[in-house]
Write a structure and sequence with these properties.
Layout: H1 3-15, H2 24-27, E1 69-77, E2 81-88, E3 94-101, H3 102-107, H4 111-121, E4 132-137, E5 141-146, H5 154-161, H6 166-185, E6 188-189, E7 198-200, E8 206-208, E9 215-216, H7 234-237, H8 245-260, H9 270-279, H10 290-299, H11 310-314, H12 317-322
Antiparallel strand pairs: 1-2, 2-3, 3-5, 4-5, 6-9, 7-8
Helix pairs in contact: 6-8, 8-10
Length: 339
Amino acid sequence: MNKEVFLQHEVSNGSKLVKENLSKEIQSHKSEVNKENIGVNAINAEDGHVHKESENNPYKGKQWSLDDFEIGKPLGRGKFGRVYLAREKRSKYIIALKVLFKSQLSKASVEHQLRREIEIQSHLRHSNILQLYGYFFDEKRVYLILEFAPKGELYKELTKRTRFSEKTSATYIAQLADALRYCHAHKVIHRDIKPENLLLGFYGELKISDFGWSVHAPSSRRTTLCGTLDYLPPEMVEGKQHDQNVDLWSLGVLCYEFLVGNPPFETNSHEETYTRISQVKYSFPSHISFPARDLISKLLRRDPLERLSLDNVLAHPWIKHNAAMFSSTSESSYRKTHV
């Protein structure tokens, strides 16, 4: 089954479209977007930049509403809402529709964080980054129109397998390194790389899916403590300034977790995890090859400047020997209208 047929099948046969699987709560609020205040009322933004869509999008400039989509089965649930499989009625294009509840966003005081996430992700064009096509809103919700990743969450795949082989791990790390190299070239720091924020596309390719803690930082130095503890580098847990090198540390943690099945600094208490991270205290199981150990140890360096660069990660012998062939397919340059 080719990709197009598979996606259509997912919506038509697995979903029982619209009325049966779309919650009554969402269905009752199928209001049109506010055509005059788009980009302002949606998430209390200060400007309308976040509504801009892909330059390659045939519907560029269109102001969406829920009526433009057939809604299928739920794909997942998050802290602020749900994600549904959906199909755009006119083009029959399959997407994932992320539905966020304004009341919950406001209660958690993350409206600005959402605006930043939309602004950043909507500008990124890379085969290993989940594309954000656009967004719209109604009185109670914000809807994000996202690329659909048919093979789902990488975290679930890792849990099912317990750990990945060196070839699978190297392939994922190579794809992630290439995507992060693209982000860093455009002054975007992700700051929350972990299995839960990675999806798998139709061909099993890795896709970064969550930019909730990302930041566009031309000045390179940040101080905000964010992300998930097991993946944070020493400079962040100690409250020091940090830059794009935090993503290199997270890449090393992820490589270890792929091969072992759990993060290197994981413990039963936050305090002990903090200590292990600060001391860079971890060990390798016997089954990890020496080339893999070499790569991980060169990423998990306390001094951010000593961490292996992304170019050198991609040139590392373990990657070159084990990773399946891939190519960077960033589709267009990062648009000049940054955050």
